[in-house]
């Protein structure tokens, strides 16, 4: 009887810690994919979703799946079709076989001109005001 009571007390004492650890692990697993949008020097938009191991890219109607490879300080992703994505700070360089290399800058939505000028469709009225259209 004493052993059963001690086990129950011990389990009850550690249960909140176990639940918290499971919740944190679940949150970390869901946050591992990092989406980003880049505007390229030719006007095209590159959408990328990256994890520490791979990247999924969409450029116009083309989609690419790449695997991360070890490189110096840059993050570099490649595939067998000759596509290479190199990330350094807020710049992405997309090289594709037999095509010009694209240099793209990361888009920060809050710094886009339509947001800064207040003309964006997603503009919300200040607290206490209602939108009039």
Q: What separation lies between the terminal Cα atoms?
A: 73 Å
Average pLDDT confidence is 75
Tell me the CATH architecture of the largest domain. Beta Barrel
| Run of helices and strands | HEEEEEEEEH
Helix content estimate:
10-25%
Care to count the β-strands?
A: 8
Number of domains: 2
Reported by name, the CATH topology of the largest domain is Lipocalin
User: Any idea what the radius of gyration is?
Assistant: 23 Å
Across the major sheet, the strand order is 1-2-3-4-5-6-7-8
Question: What is the C-level CATH assignment of the largest domain?
Answer: Mainly Beta
Biggest sheet, open or closed, and with what strands and sense?
Answer: 8 strands, antiparallel, barrel
Figure out the total of helices: 2
**Parts with pLDDT < 50 across at least 5 consecutive residues:** 14-31, 122-126
Strand portion: 25-35%
Structural class: alpha+beta
Silhouette: globular
Main features:
signal, 2 helices, C-type lysozyme inhibitor domain-containing protein, 2 domains, 133 residues, 8-stranded antiparallel beta barrel, single chain, alpha+beta, Lipocalin, globular
């Amino acid at each position: 009887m004493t052993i059963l009571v001690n086990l129950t007390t011990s389990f009850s004492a550690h249960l909140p810690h176990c639940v918290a650890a499971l919740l944190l692990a679940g949150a970390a697993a869901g946050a591992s994919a990092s989406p980003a949008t880049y505007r390229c020097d030719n006007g095209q938009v590159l959408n990328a979703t990256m994890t520490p191991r791979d990247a999924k890219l969409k450029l116009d109607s083309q989609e690419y799946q790449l695997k991360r490879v070890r490189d110096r300080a840059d993050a570099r992703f490649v595939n067998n079709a000759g596509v290479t994505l190199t990330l350094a700070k807020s710049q992405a360089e997309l090289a594709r076989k037999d095509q010009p290399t694209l240099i793209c800058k990361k888009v920060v939505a809050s710094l886009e001109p339509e947001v800064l000028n207040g003309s964006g469709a997603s503009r919300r009225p200040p607290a206490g005001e209602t939108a009039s259209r």
